[in-house]
């Protein structure tokens, strides 16, 4: 007779298998190119309805994958934010955005799929909001935004919003490209995740500190 503990353990193992498989397939093929049936089969589930049973809709599955990684990333980020609290150096706050994500991927070991999964979701109009919502719910990101605002008091609001979008795009896709290269065994510009993070922090810091051209053609802060 199967005990409740065994049933719970079995259900937990099934959920983990589905999450891992869905993340990989979504990363490699795109979210809507992959059916729940394909995920169930690739995860070794005889029941093709397993995905729906354990997670509900595809949007619910995407949210579950995001949260699976978000908790550890937030833990790393919160610790780093605590270290730089009160800083007036843009680079410190940019580092708080980049390094926790990269460190989490490095800790997972190779290959990883989450960066490519994130890039796929962020280009999907129907699902992008899930990733944004999950990110904005992280307390540390609010602290980073406040820190950047303090470092750049003269940056016009519209330019601030524009550069935040630029920074997000660059970060999402550069990390995904490195992850893809590592998975495929192709050369990468930097030899380690740490060095890749340093290069990305350099670029993003320059982006935030770049001069602003006004409509008349002049520049200023």
Helix content: over 70%
Strand order of the largest sheet: 1-2
Q: So what's the overall shape?
A: elongated
- Tally of helical segments: 10
Topology diagram in text:
Blueprint: H1 4-29, H2 36-42, H3 50-55, H4 58-84, H5 90-108, H6 114-122, H7 128-136, H8 139-151, H9 157-184, H10 193-209, E1 212-213, E2 219-220
Antiparallel strand pairs: 1-2
Helix pairs in contact: 1-4, 1-6, 4-5, 4-7, 4-8, 5-8, 5-10, 6-9, 9-10
Organism: Amycolatopsis dongchuanensis
Keywords: DNA-binding, Transcription, Transcription regulation
Pfam family, one: TetR_N
Descriptive notes:
It contains 10 helices and 2 strands; from the N terminus they run H-H-H-H-H-H-H-H-H-H-E-E. The chain has helices at residues 4-29, 36-42, 50-55, 58-84, 90-108, 114-122, 128-136, 139-151, 157-184, 193-209; strands at 212-213, 219-220. The protein starts with a helix and ends with a strand. It is elongated and about 65 Å long. The relative contact order is 0.11. The protein is mainly alpha-helical. The longest helix has 28 residues, at 157-184. Strand 1 and strand 2 (219-220) form a beta hairpin. The protein has a two-stranded antiparallel sheet with strand order 1-2. Helix 1 (4-29) packs across helix 4 (58-84) and helix 1 crosses helix 6 (114-122).
